[in-house]
Specification:
This protein is mostly helical. 76% of the residues lie in helices and 0% in strands. It is extended.
């Protein structure tokens, strides 16, 4: 009986230790990660209520401003556009279950956009 108790105790300790290791927060290399998360929280409800026309207008406005050589978006403006597009991609994944993987991949691509890359493309 004592051996069973010891085995159960050590198994419990192993599970607790493993859970703590897995539950640790991942460190990110992105210096703008906090800004992106704040914008995501700020615009999540708004963008989820967008219809196709609202999204198309947002998408084309972003590309028009991005290609305009006389205009440079601020960091917050740039990330506002990219995060809103990412949120809409996420919405499509929720609406169309068969496209969930594509939507998650697209969301990640838009989240991974970098302001420094944008500035370098303006040079």
């Amino acid at each position: 009986m004592k051996k069973i108790t010891q085995i159960a105790f050590f198994t419990f300790l192993l599970l607790v230790a493993t859970n703590n290791v897995v539950a640790q927060e991942k460190a990110t290399n992105d210096p703008d990660a906090q800004l992106k998360e704040d914008l995501y929280k700020k615009y999540k409800k708004e963008v989820r209520s967008y219809d196709k026309n609202d999204f198309d207008a947002l998408f084309f406005e972003f590309f028009k401003k991005q290609k305009d050589t006389s205009l440079t978006l601020t960091q917050e403006e740039f990330y506002t556009y990219t995060i809103k597009i990412a949120i809409y991609s996420e919405k499509l994944g929720l609406l169309y279950k068969d496209q969930k993987e594509d939507a998650q991949r697209t969301k990640k691509e838009w989240f991974d956009k970098s302001y420094s890359d944008y500035l370098n493309s303006k040079k």
